[in-house]
Amino acid sequence: MAATALMFQGTGSDVGKSLIVAGLARAYTRRGLRVRPFKPQNMSNNAAVTADGGEIGRAQALQARAARVAPSVHMNPVLLKPQSDVGAQVVVQGKVLGNAKAREYQGLKPKLLGAVLDSFGRLAADCDLVLVEGAGSASEVNLRKSDIANMGFSRATDVPVILVGDIDRGGVIASLVGTKAVIDAADAGMIVGFIVNRFRGDPSLFDDGMKTVAERTGWPALGLVPYFNEAHRLPAEDAVVLQDIKVVVQELRGDLAEGADSLLGEPLEHELHRSCERAGDGPNGDPLVAGTPKSQQVGVVKELPDVELRCRPQHERNDREVQMERR
Fold it and tell me: In 10 A of CB 1, how many CB atoms?
């Protein structure tokens, strides 16, 4: 496969995967790489529409904008649109497949893996780097057998994983170490490092925390992401209300995956001041609707793998959405 791929999975929902992927997509696009975002499965009933009339999650549309490419149905081949507390409409590669209750969907997922792999292959054949976002939690071993969104996808494609934990909600050390404790050894072997998201205060105070996680899991610490309550113009899905953060991936190294060092590990020769291009003048300051101011600063890159990005993570899904989205 032509492209290098890297996947971001979370210790749970709402740990900030979507905006980390969006920020890195812009950073590496600025570097000159052809980047494509990809999420095997997403849940939102406020979808974005592609040029051919298909539907994908709005987070993937935002990530596509960050990568400066047109949104494609292949960036989110399986979209779940909630229809009730226990059911959703299933959209596959932009077209409605039908409705399914949560239990019925568990049996349907293995049949959708072919479409997921087809879409991933199409993107990978046309770019340098695919940034993949998982769904829900990597540690839901009760759903692992039919998984297509997290470790099931990673193992099927041999794509390495960075695990993201959220310190703002508390218990991040336990959630990261606990993930290693409950997933099987082969799945754990796909994880090449971890990021701690939404840290408040003096980052040096969490040095021992990062070391503890690294020692107990065997995974290298790749970055500490501070909480930043400034960004407010990124679009929200009705299932995912975005909050403000500032992302600083301080130690994202070039040894994340075999062959990735040539893409991810070389320094830039000069500082880049980046702006997020917007469409025009639309309502509510939504960058995905015509009408928003044309530029907005997202951050500064001095060197890769040291990346500073300004973006926002997802808000907590409600119980029914989590049940349907979890792999």
Answer: 12
The pair of structure tokens assigned to 162 is: 């960075």
Amino acid letter for position 107: G
For position 45, what pLDDT does the model report? 74
- Nearest Cα residue to 59 out of 90, 77, 37: 37
Q: Which residues pair with 159 in a beta bridge?
A: none
Structure tokens at 210: 């990062």
> 260-288 pLDDT, tens per residue?
444 444 433 332 233 333 333 333 334 44
CA atoms of 14 and 314, how far apart (whole Å): 5
**Integer Cα distance of 289 and 219 in angstroms:** 40
The answer to whether the bond into 305 is cis (omega within 30° of 0) is yes
Interatomic CA distance for residues 151 and 273, integer angstroms: 35
Q: Where are the beta strands (DSSP E) in the chain?
A: 4-10, 35-38, 41-43, 48-49, 55-56, 78-82, 87-92, 95-101, 129-133, 161-166, 191-199, 221-226, 245-249, 272-275, 297-301, 307-311
Contact criterion met (CB below 8 Å) for 219 and 196: no
CA distances from 196 to 19, 119, 267, 274, 326 (A): 14, 30, 23, 24, 21
Report helix, strand or coil for 240. strand
Domains of the chain as residue ranges with CATH = 4-33+132-325 (3.40.50)
pLDDT at 67 over 50: yes
The Cα-based distances of 247 to 47, 142, 227 in angstroms read 25, 32, 8
